Amino acid sequence: MVIRTCVGCRQRADKSTLVRVVARREEAEWSALPDVRGTLPGRGAYLHPSPECLDLAIRRRAFGRALRIEGRITTEALGAQFAQDQNQST
Fold it and tell me: Cβ atoms within 10 A of the Cβ of 49, count?
């Protein structure tokens, strides 16, 4: 069992229950993307797949620190992924 810390709520959890997030540069802006398979290259941050943890991470500006990126990071792809996951589970 591998333990990671959620960048949103800061709780430790098993890696299999968290979503890995990586940063990709698109033109002049960084985007935080979900890495569901855990195979994308680059530094990763971990997040519970819930809108609450995503909101906490955004408010705390945790993605920039965890991914070691300066500047603004867009999180629309993460929000869309979490919304899609919740719609499928209900």
Answer: 18
CA distances from residue 79 to 2, 12, 27, 87 in whole angstroms, order as listed:
25, 22, 21, 12
Domain range holding 10?
A: 3-89
* Cβ atoms of 33 and 24 closer than 8 Å: yes
The reported pTM is 0.87
Residues 4-54 pLDDT 10s: 999 999 999 999 999 999 999 988 889 999 998 889 999 999 999 998 999
Query: The domain that contains 29 carries what CATH number?
Result: 3.30.1230.10
Domain count within the chain: 1
